[in-house]
Amino acid sequence: MSLNESKKRDFVSQLIVIMEQNTQKLTDAGFDPVAKIEQLKAELTTADDAEGKQTEAAAAAKDATKLANETLDTVYINGSATVDLISGLLGKNDNLVLEIKKLRKTGKGKAKNSPTEF
To answer: Which of 92, 16, 1 is nearest to 47 (CA)?
Structure first.
């Protein structure tokens, strides 16, 4: 059985509370829990801090993805407008225009066996 983050965090937090509430009983049984309680508290704080950084990183990744998509959309729109301009200047049946229009269909930077100049 694998526990998720929330359950692991809850387990450790509850263990700390139980050990704090039963320090004398545990000491009488031969286990002084004070050092272990402090260790668990410190490790839990470190885990909490790491989770905070993880959340920040996830948010930053989402922001970066959004920016990348927006800028790609912008450049694609600008590229398409340039194709429209060239098509308007040369005519939609010009070989250069036809080759440029193939770029969208191939999904590649260069159409198959197409020269760069016409």
So the answer is: 16
